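Researcher: I'd like a candidate sequence for this fold, 245 residues long. If you have to choose between options at a position, lean toward the conservative one.
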């Protein structure tokens, strides 16, 4: 418990056997009540490694459903066990779990409803090995998202996030995509529900074992985001209703 709040860390996992234990050992367990790991039909020993670690609840998908579907299972199970704050950390060690205390404090104190780790605030994206085309796409798509939603975030594509129970129960995250665009859809839902956002600076690592999507998948991801932003504007204008919101 932290300030009377139950803290649950979720790990959407896929082929993370080489990095999972390192992420676990760097997680500040003194602040964490539970860890939920959902394995999206990994082809390696991710589940076997996870079973040797303490205080991890493991859920498995019988077949690969996608990154968004993985998050859905994680959030659903976290809410079932009474999570007040849910922190998502990828078990591929691209993000540093040692920043978790900075993420949960503003949420526990009621200062915001969601908090994102931002590589742009960290200012060391290239030092961590971030490809230039990912950086350019990140900046452009974040700017489009800010313009569309009337908000200001320095990064809307981070995989290091924390949400309050209020946020997750106010939206229908189960209706979102099973793919990577889930991360944008959950922001759109939060903005639509007048949730409060905050960011903290982080650093990231790009290396062989860190999960990354290809340039082709990245282009499709970008087009999917633009499509969702257009749907959002049409919904807000009363032109085309979007059940997601």
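Model: Candidate sequence:
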């Amino acid at each position: 418990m932290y300030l009377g709040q139950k803290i649950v860390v979720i790990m959407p996992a896929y082929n993370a056997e080489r990095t999972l234990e390192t992420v676990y050992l760097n997680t500040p367990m003194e602040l964490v009540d539970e860890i939920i790991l959902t394995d999206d039909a990994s082809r390696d020993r991710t589940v076997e490694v996870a079973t040797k670690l303490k205080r991890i609840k493991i859920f498995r998908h019988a077949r690969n459903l996608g990154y968004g579907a993985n998050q859905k299972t994680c959030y659903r199970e976290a809410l079932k066990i009474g999570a007040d704050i849910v922190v998502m950390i990828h078990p591929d060690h691209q993000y540093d779990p040692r920043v978790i205390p900075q993420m949960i404090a503003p949420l526990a104190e009621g200062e915001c409803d969601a908090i994102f780790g931002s590589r742009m605030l960290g200012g060391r994206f290239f030092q961590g090995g971030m490809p230039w085309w990912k950086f350019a796409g990140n900046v452009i798509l974040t700017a489009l998202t800010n313009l569309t939603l009337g908000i200001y975030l320095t990064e809307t594509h981070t995989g290091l996030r924390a949400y309050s129970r209020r946020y997750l129960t106010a939206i229908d995250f189960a209706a979102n995509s099973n793919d990577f665009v889930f991360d944008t859809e959950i922001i759109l839902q939060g903005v639509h529900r007048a949730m409060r956002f905050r960011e903290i600076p982080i650093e990231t690592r790009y290396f062989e074992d860190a999960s990354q999507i290809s340039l082709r998948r990245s282009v499709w991801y970008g087009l999917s985001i633009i499509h969702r932003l257009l749907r959002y504007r049409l919904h807000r204008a009363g032109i085309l209703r979007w059940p997601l919101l």
